Amino acid sequence: MKSHRERLQFYAAECCETQQDYAEMMAEIASYDDDRCAEECKKIEAFKGFAETLKSQMAQAPAGTDVADLPIVQAESKATDLEISGNNSHSKH
């Protein structure tokens, strides 16, 4: 199994459009400790899951459906609203 650092390097190779972008991303990844690599991998995996679900829901939605009306977008929006309202209540204390 690949290490988190190796997985980040693989993602960089997939996503960077230019050699300069790739070199900069590789330098940034090299500066991460193992915990940071693991955190970044979790973020990427979560985003990939969201993107796959969004793509699937768009394919199944009737023509002309607004992206904001898709269940995955509504769920994410609700979660974000709850997080913001929770953070605001903590900051007032």
What is the rounded Rg? Answer: 18 Å
Name the shape in a single word: extended
Q: How many angstroms separate the termini?
A: 45 Å
Q: What fraction of residues sit in β-strands?
A: under 5%
What's the count of strands?
A: 0
By helix and strand content, what is the structural category?
mainly alpha
Q: Helix and strand string, N-terminal first?
A: HHHH
Biggest β-sheet: count, sense, barrel? Answer: none
What is the count of helical runs? 4
Report the helical percentage. Answer: over 70%
Domain unit count: 2
Write down the overall mean pLDDT. 90
Low-confidence stretches: 89-93
Question: Summed up, what is this model?
Answer:
The protein has helices spanning 4-15, 19-31, 34-60, 71-91.
Please explain how this structure is put together.
- The longest helix is centred in the middle third of the chain and has 27 residues.
- The protein is mainly α and 93 residues long.
- The chain folds into two domains: 52 residues, no CATH class; 33 residues.
- The C terminus is likely disordered.
